[in-house]
Amino acid sequence: MRDHFEMRDADAAGRIGRLEVPRADRTIETPALMPVINPNRLTIEPARLEAEFGVEILITNSYIIRETESLREQALDEGLHAMLEFDGAIMTDSGSFQLSEYSDVEVTTKEIIEFQHAIGSDIGTPVDIPTPPDVSREQAESELATTQQALADAEAIDVGEILLNAPVQGSTHPDLREDAAAHAAATDLDVFPVGAVVPLMNSYRYDDMVEAVAAAKRGLGADCPVHLFGAGHPMMLALAVAMGCDLFDSAAYALYARAGRYLTVAGTQQLDDLDYLPCSCPICSERTPADLRSEDDDTRTRLLAEHNLHVTFEELRRIKQAIRSGNLLELVERRARGHPAMYDGYRALLDHADQLEAEDPVSKGTFFHTSAESARRPEVLRHHERLDRLAVPDRLLLTEGGAPDGDEYDDAWRVVPPFGPFPRELSDSYPFTAAVPDRPDRAGQVAAADGVRALVEANPDTEFTLAINDWHRDAIDRVPERVEIESLSTIHDDGD
C-alpha cells in the first residue's frame, strides 16, 4: 500500500485525495493542476501563482534546466525552489519528449534523477519513451520495454524523500497500457503518469484518450495517484477526473495566451473573434475584448494567461464540489454537450460503466436522467446486476402506475426508466430518488426493459405482469415472452 496517497471522497472513478509530498513538506489536495513553468520564459511568476491562484504544485523541465548553463548553475547553487521563488511542491519532467524528438544528447535515468535530486525537486521522473498513438504493436512493445527498464533503474536509485514518477506507456494498444500499468504499480515508485496522450487531445480524440486511461486504470491499484500528462484544458478536466485522474499539468494557459487564444469550459476562442468576455474572473470583469487587444504583446499574453488559469482553477473547484455532491457525471454530461468530440469521450467513458461501478459510491446525490447516455451509467448497471438479490413473490406486478387494488398480485413493484423494476419500499433510496423526465426516451425504456429481463431470468418460477404505457417497440421486444404485458396504449416504431 502507498501511504503517501489517501482518498477522501469519490464519485464515478473520480476522487478527492491527499497526496503527501515529503520533501516539500506539503500535502496536495487532488484533483490538482500543475502549471507548467518554462524557466527561460516566465509568463506568470511562480510566486504569483502561489499567492493569487492558490497553486500548491507546479511542474518544470529538468532537462531544459540541465542543458541551459545559466539555469543549471543557478539551480545547483540556490536550489529549484529559490530559483523559481516558489514554496510549494515542484515536480520535474525528465525531458523525455525533447530527448526523443529534438536532441542527440544521451541522458540516462540515473543521471537525470540524480540531477533532479541535486536541484531540490520534490517529484522526479525517469527517462521513458513517450510512444505516440497509432504506432505498430512491435514498436510499442519495444519502447515499452525500454520504459520499464527506466523504471527499474529509477527504483534502484537512493533518492531519499523525493517521490518518483512511473510513466505508463503503451500507445493506443489497451492491453499494453494495462500491462504497463500493472508493471508500474508493482514497483516502489510513487506517482503514475499516463503518458503520450497529448497527440490524442490535440486532435480531439477524446474517446481514444478515455480508452488509454481506462486501460491504465485497470492495471493500477486504487491507491495509485494518476497524472494525465499534458492535460490542462478546462473543457476536458471533468471527463478526465471521472476516469480517475488526479494530477494534470497545463502549459496551455501560457501557450494559448501567446497565440491570442481564450480558454472556456466549452472550448477555445480567438480573442480577435470576441465582442464580449463570457467570464467574471478578475481579468474579464474589468476589461473588454477591445481593452485586451489594445495592450502590448507581453501584457496581453500575461492577462490572457491569467484568465486561462482562473477559468481552469474555477473548473477544478466545480469538479471537486461535484464529487462531494455526488453529481460528477452530470457535470461531465454538461461538458460533453459542448463539443461532439467531448460527447464521444463521454460515450467511451460509459462503455466502461462496469469499471466505473467498482469505484462508484453506492449512495450519493440525486441521479439526473437527462439523455440517452444516462441509461448507461454505472448506477443503472449496478441495479440490474443486483436484481437477483431481491426476494420476489409468486405473482408480481411491475408497473409504471400506482399499486392496484385487490389481491390479484402478491406485490406490485415500481418500474422507472432507466432502472426498471424495484420494490416500492426502496423508492426513497438512491438511485431511485432520481429526477427523470415525464417523457422517457427510447434508451431509458430499453434500459428499463433490460432490468425487467434480468429480474425475470433470475426468478423462473414467478408469474410477472408488466403494466406500462407508450413504450417503444424495441423496448417491448426486450421483455421476455413469458411476461404478460398490460395497459399498453401505444407502441412506437420510430426513434426517440
UniProtKB/TrEMBL annotation:
Substrate binds at D128, A196. Binds 1 zinc ion per subunit. Its cofactor is Zn(2+). Residues 13-340 form the tRNA-guanine(15) transglycosylase-like domain. It catalyses: guanosine(15) in tRNA + 7-cyano-7-carbaguanine = 7-cyano-7-carbaguanosine(15) in tRNA + guanine. Zn(2+) binds at C279, C281, C284. Gene3D superfamilies: Queuine tRNA-ribosyltransferase-like. GO terms for molecular function: pentosyltransferase activity; zinc ion binding. Pathway: tRNA modification; archaeosine-tRNA biosynthesis. Keywords: Glycosyltransferase, Metal-binding, Transferase, tRNA processing, Zinc. GO terms for biological process: tRNA wobble guanine modification. GO terms for cellular component: cytoplasm. It comes from the Archaea. Its EC number is 2.4.2.48. The active site is at D93. InterPro entries: ArchSynthase1/Queuine_TRR, TGT-like_sf, TgtA, tRNA_ribo_trans-like. NCBIfam families: arcsn_tRNA_tgt, tgt_general. Exchanges the guanine residue with 7-cyano-7-deazaguanine (preQ0) at position 15 in the dihydrouridine loop (D-loop) of archaeal tRNAs. Belongs to the archaeosine tRNA-ribosyltransferase family. This is tRNA-guanine(15) transglycosylase. It comes from Halonotius aquaticus. The lineage of its organism: Archaea, Methanobacteriati, Methanobacteriota, Stenosarchaea group, Halobacteria. The gene is tgtA.
